## 1
Amino acid sequence: MSEVNRGSRIGGWSRFVTARPRLSLLVAMVITALAVVAGSGVGDRMGSGGWEDPAASSTYATRALEREFPASQPNLLLLVDAGAKGVDDPAVTAEAERLTERLAAEEGVIGVGSYWQTRAPALRAEDGGEALIAARIVGTEKEAGETLERVAPEFRGAQGPVEVSVGGPVAVRHEMQAIIQEDLLRAELIALPVTLVLLVMVFGSAIAALLPLGIGIVAILGTNAVLRGITEITDVSVFAQNLTTALGLGLAVDYALFIVRRFREELAEGAQVRDAVGTTLRTAGRTVLFSALTVAVSLAAMMVFPQYFLRSFAYAGIAVVLLAAAAALILLPAALMLLGHRVNFLDLRRLFRRKKPTPGDGIASGVRSAETEGSGGGWGRTATLVMRRAPLFAVATATGLVLLGLPFLGVKFGTADHRQLPSGAEARVVQEDIRGGFPGSPGGGLEVLGEGGATPAEYADYRDRVAALPDVERVDGPVVSGDHAYFTVLPRGEAVGQDAQRLVGELRAEPAAFDTSVTGTAAVLVDSKDAIADRLPLAVGIIVVVTLLLIFLLTGSVLIPIQAVALNALSLTAMFGAVVWVFQDGNLSGLLGFTSTGDIETTLPVLMFCVAFGLSMDYGVFLISRIKEEYDRSGDHEHAVVFGLRRTGGLITAAAVILAVVMVAIGTSRVTNTKMLGLGIALAVVMDAMVVRSLLVPAVMKLTGKATWWAPRPLRRFHERFGVSEGGSHPAVGTNGGKGADGANGADGAVSGAGERDKVGV
């Protein structure tokens, strides 16, 4: 049965999508308009924290201290600069006391204290020119941000004889949130026009180029509406908006490239528009569905972690992936039904041509001749060369990727702090002044909460034993209130360094006559690392098992899913190596404009793995599905690999380049973690598309030969019942001993028709 005849047998889904294309688009426009309204202001409702484990001992201690000893957990610091007069000048003292009283009278602010009240050395700069007023803003992150916005302008700037700057954790989070939203808008303004230009180059048609952009916008706006709803139920990180933009545009481009190219191919073969849409949905549509499921599973795995920072990316990622796929499988076919052959109109590249282009196989090639495709083209020649020297390419490529990943062996995990902000940000300037000019690094200590009550002698005994620990610089306290007390323990060295993290364990192991729990920056980091280590095997297991199952359902092979997972993981080594070499070790920090902290925020590698693995599998599904379709048709293993790379090489490269542009635009952020996320994933997708898919996959598939398609009989029967493939035809498996060139069960037909079927590409 010919492709055209099969295309006329449009199934229920195709009939549903194509029956009322105008109505489908109208409904989509209405829903999108509602999403704009529903998602408005979503960024203002998001938080900029979420790195802590809500069930951890440190989180319990933090909440208990906030309840029982509000002054022990200041999150707002007013840095009072007295200049040459010094903080003990009478006029400065009088003004500082007025500021302290005004701050204590503000609604939502508790636990106000200052150097001028306590004369505590830790609240006075060593040079005597600056001192601190400390307080705590209560409420959720959103409520605290609103309070800060109301309070900060009243205190910031010149106040009589002093100059006041606003800092503290709540100011750092609020400024980070504002900067991320500004940077995201700038990234969108960069990425959208550049993406449109690249799409015109890829499709050779302004009409076709607008389709993926429209799908991406629908997915982004829809996801913002979903996130706005989720913020009513739970906390969502503002960083998730970056993933929404990147995946919304990136996956829309991926799916639209695959569907539009297949549609144009069917038209070029003479199919009617409705038949072409039906065949496209039955083939490329299935691949898009499987691809979306694999990406969604990778992102959904972050749901197993307790930190809402990671869970937020799962919320955003699942929503944007499913919405992008839905738009590609519903709206795009409706648009193609209305456009028909006009999808090829407005070839803007002609404006820059001096002569008629030579048929080619590059990223920007349009309609190609059957002769060029039949001869293999650039991607076909690459696949042929790689398979001819398969052992060399496999070993060299794998070795190179492993070497690029070696710096990750020296990774050090830390926590995000004020150094994530650009150097001129007020909250960072305040924290840097405190860090460098105040004794004992205020706010950098560990707090030990004591519960159950004890005698003064028991408290004193505990304090003396803690002070004797080798990693302790000083112990302050106890501060007692009823059956509760707390000690402040200052560690030697950095507040979140290895010594401080080791001290957390020592404090928790130290016996006491009362119940103890430890909090502070280092304690939160230790608990966060433990939570991730505890849940990571489950997350990886979910990704691997579900991915293996999905790829098996698509291919019916046992080996291909294993290859896909292994090669995908290998493609991420360059990203992880670069993250450590650049962001931890500080190489290129001047060029990229960030401050290296000497460590990597604990949750970032998990996030980057899930996102990059999903995107890499996205490209892998595109390539594997086309190889599988051709293998089912021809039964020739090597020909199918060459054919698959020839037909998808340019498409995958184009999609990767466009997604990399979007991620690099996000990587221009002034917040270090966002910069790391954008640039790291951009590197991962480029390496996957241009190295792994182009070199390693064909080399490995050549080496595995006929075993590539093997499956035991029970699994083969399972696949025959439940599996699908991109091709609309039945697998070309002969029961009379027919074999392909590789010895596997093959088609009765030869591959002589490949040239006629291989006319159009992106």
## 2
Amino acid sequence: MSRSPSESRGAGRGSGSGDPLRPSDHIDGVAVDDRTPSESDDGSITQPALGPLGWARWAWRQLTSMRTALVLLLLLAIAAVPGSIVPQRSADPNGVTQYYTDNPDLAPVLDRLQLFDVYSSAWFSAIYILLFVSLIGCVIPRTKHHWKALRARPPRTPARLSRLDDHTESFVELAPGQDAAGVAGSAIDLAAAQLKRAGYRVERYDAPGALSVSAERGYLRETGNLVFHIALIGVLIAVGLGGGFTYTGQRVVVEGTTFVNALTDYSSFNPGRFVDPERLTPYSMTLDSFDVTYQAPGTAGGGQAGDFAAHVTTQLSGQDPTDGVVRVNHPLTIAGDRVYLLGNGYAPTLTVRNAAGDVVFHDSVPFLPQDANLTSLGVIKVPDGLPEQLGLVGFFYPTAQKLDSGALTSVFGDLVYPTLTLNVYAGDLGIDDGTPRSVYTLDTSSMTKLTGMDTDVSSIELVPGQSAELPNGWGSVTFDDESLDGEGASVKRFASLSIHRDAAGPWVLTFAILSLAGLLAALFVPRRRMWVKATPDGNTVRIEYAGLARGEDPALRAAVEQVSQKHGDALETVLRADRVRSQPPAGEASDRA
């Protein structure tokens, strides 16, 4: 009498068998007392509890997986985005100061999130280090496996090549008396030689009744993949360590003045952690002239600047001076430093005298451009020599023109009708307490406005060579004409320069080129296996060709056909030559007859 399925299952459980349809004494049966601790009463398997070491191994496997490395690489790219949106202290400290001025409520929040120091922030460094560890954990095991694969023999020829998708075969008819086994051996020798010349690694696998050669190539694909990842590690190391030997500084240089590569001569300086600011390479750089070419009004692009060129004289310690030119996107190299042109503008020369006629201030002051026509804003601070500290806020117009409202504007960037207007403030400049103050801004909270709007005195308006009296009879201010006997520009220009030393640059470039070469190899080198098999069969030899790709390889079928065609043509030539050699000469044949 047969049992129902439910009875069978019940009997199986009662006997303690792992399979309910097998008795408990079956070879695969498990008695109740012999169950493993991870097996519950209902036969299900429970996951054993992981200890600290087990969890550590699991975390390491997750971190060193290729998927995690790709996610971290994406996170690193996303994390770098704020660095291109928000000004960074390392590259643009003045921009950070201006951001605080423009956004007093938002700036402290961004600063707490380290968004002004993105590339040295804790969260960016964490992603950077995790990516570095992940890539190393990925590369080392794969390198070991790849090294073993390179030294291994090509795989044995499958018994049934016809089961492969990319397969073709041909038959060679033998002449009477030809040895089929010898022809098969010659065919395989010829195939091995051809495949080897094509870059395959070959191995003969001969069996009774069938001769074959196994070939494979494309290990350069995996080599390129490893080179790509190793190069990425190289980039991370170069950026991480090279950044410690990198420094960046900014300096505004007025025509005729000299910059010295010393910490005290920089407007701002941001060294790497391994840079000693007191041991910079000594050299000097003098801005001889700053030339700008403007498109003439009325022409295409009229009024626009076409070319900027800062002509400088550089001199290394103990060497002769040399001339150089700094242009936009064409930096000047000196003593391993790269000098970049960041900006330019005008630097009106002002002289302030007290009531006795003594000079209390004389300097060429850079004015910051506010529009495309170089309407520029500048600040002059006179801390000593007058009854009170004096601050002058000025607007400079290279080509001044009065608007309907009466205000001035600049209509052209070149010096056609240069005009300077000044508003005078008296009071505390806020510099006596030692607090750093920007030379481009004036804190008027503790000062009294003496000229301009909201006062009874008009703003001072000057052209080069003119002077005007200061309020309250305190003295005079002169807009100096810098031209010599009417020759040359009446107002000096300045160039904003960035001096940058990047010790990691050549290494990053090298590793970037390697990573690109590795990526190209990983993408375009096919990984293939090819087999040629010869089977003697009476007066014929059956020759089979087959290929197998690792991954997608749409050209594999064409490759198999090409191997078949070349091998068949070469084999036909060899057999024809053998037949000719085996035939006796015509005279000898007639003598035998």
## 3
Amino acid sequence: MTAATHSTLFPQVPESADAVLAGLDPEQREVATALHGPVCVLAGAGTGKTRAITHRIAYGVRAGIIPPAGVLAVTFTNRAAGEMRGRLRQLGAGGVQARTFHSAALRQLQFFWPKAVGGELPRLLERKIQLVAEAAARCRIRLDRNELRDTTSEIEWAKVTQTVPADYPAAVAKSDRDAPRDPAEIGQIYAMYEQLKRDRGVIDFEDVLLLTVGILQDRHDIADQIRRQYQHFVVDEYQDVSPLQQRLLDLWLGDRDSLCVVGDASQTIYSFTGATPDHLLNFRTRHPNATVVKLVRDYRSTPQVVHLANGLLGQARGRAAEHRLELVSQRDPGPEPAYTEYGDEPSEAEGTARRIRDLIAAGVPAGEIAVLYRINAQSEVYEQALADAGVPYQLRGAERFFERQEVREAGAALRSAARFGDNDSLLDDVVDLPSQVRAVLSTKGWTTEPPAGSGAVRDRWESLAALVRLAEDFARAKPAATLGDLVAELDERAAAQHAPTVQGVTLASLHAAKGLEWDAVFLVGLTEGMMPITYAKTDEQVEEERRLLYVGVTRARLHLSLSWALSRAPGGRASRRPTRFLNGLRPGSAAPGARSGAGGGGGVERGGGSRRGRRGPVQCRVCGSTLTDAGEMKLMRCEGCPSDMDEALYERLREWRSDQAKQLGQPAYCVFTDKTLMAIAEAVPSSDGELASISGVGARKLDRFGTDVLAICAGQEVGEDGDED
């Protein structure tokens, strides 16, 4: 492979400018050497766009053509900006500014505010939603929690599209936007929100861009100063720019054309935030002399995954579809995508967890597996299923790694050990770097085995374990490295937000998965009403949903699984249909008219599961209500209904579970979750059949733990070897 996705963790800095170009494919090299004039890079998923643009910047810097301090590279997330800084540092171009639009604007605003306006910059509002709630109350408009969140999003959309409160209702009508409530009411709340901000001398996230734009428009001297500072601009994910961000970019540029933009119209999935691919699609109109390079060699995914991705876009409509890129896989063939139909959502979650457990047993690291869904509310049933299957997981969107308290404390301890290690008895008997790190972090809670249970204690251990793994990788890459060298590496990674990987299956929404990739991806809940989502009404909105599925498919390197459930709850009416986007692509489905994509291989499986044999809806055994929540279905009763649980039995089961977890060297939830233990203590099963009927037990756990559990339920003592297979 010419442009491998995987590189060594600690590569050597290229010795020269020409060495920076080594390993690039012809199109990437064309990007890297196009250092003058406007450049537009149309880059498909997995084609190495970040590699191309970082090598372009590094080549220009190393060749002496571009001064590092004269480059501003902007993107849309702190993670992406951190990755860019990390790569530039590894290429010997560490002085380049790589930031988000907001971060770059905030720095400029803080610096120029005293000169342009006077005094200190107003305080940045931390919790916008609280002020929106107060604004609604002052307007005598009652909002529930969901309406409050949606109204806050509407205000953000209005501001990034440069729509003032009075114009909001007309803007909504013009854009075919589905407002969460009467646009006139939202306009009222928006106006009151702005008034409250002025009264309290605070600004919000969007104001950072608006105020920077205002200063650059009004103060030509300040605009000129910024333009003297930055002569070269690079914009990643250009299909996601909002009108406000484009306006700021235009002001940064002035009358110059030293601009390189990178994007893919087929990955436009944030239009609800004001993002539009129009700026990317119109780039050649605005810049007729632009150099345009297309990257279509996909180094991420197998031909089978790429085949499905191309098939999805082959059915697309609209302007973005007219500019789609046909990807060409550069990898060896792999398995066909798997399509699985389940009877209900809990069975889909359990089937997915079993397949993930099998992949891990076959050698796929848990950190290289992801479960992706349309909305965050779908995560709970998968969290439960993975916990029941004994599979560690992490939710995407958690606190940044280097900002976690335990990571900061660990960094301080390692820094102290590096400085005063000669006088530290803790390090007397350890020589190699990983052993030193393990010794230091053992004082902060790291142990050779993970703690039992989940929650904050387990999260803390996972963070420290990630630092231990990083130290081991660092020592392998640099055998002569000292503890001080590792501390310096951690400091640079923290500055670049280049975090080590925390092991565990990733659970994430499709939107949160943008820009990431895994060896194995499970796309779940692919039914009409969820994909496309129910509120996608217009053709344009439906096409964005198709692009969202395309983004999900292209996250997979090797293994790809697509699944759907015919009903929500066990025994429910099988009224759901798989997403229309797979018509003509999944085996046995009819093509949507003449323009069908090529069908995938394999066949649609009928997913099984412990719930499959149930008949009729699951009902609360206390009040008789139909249950739909996964946790309630596990208990066979409503959360609020009284429990007849045997408390003493529950405590005995918890003690037994703790002993089992220690013997197995696993977290307690890998034996049974708390909900499963509660269900057992309530049902008090007396036979294998009764125990097997409890959700969360399953055949594997019945074989392994059934004898012990039934003995405890019968009031008997468990033998020393009762847990043996």
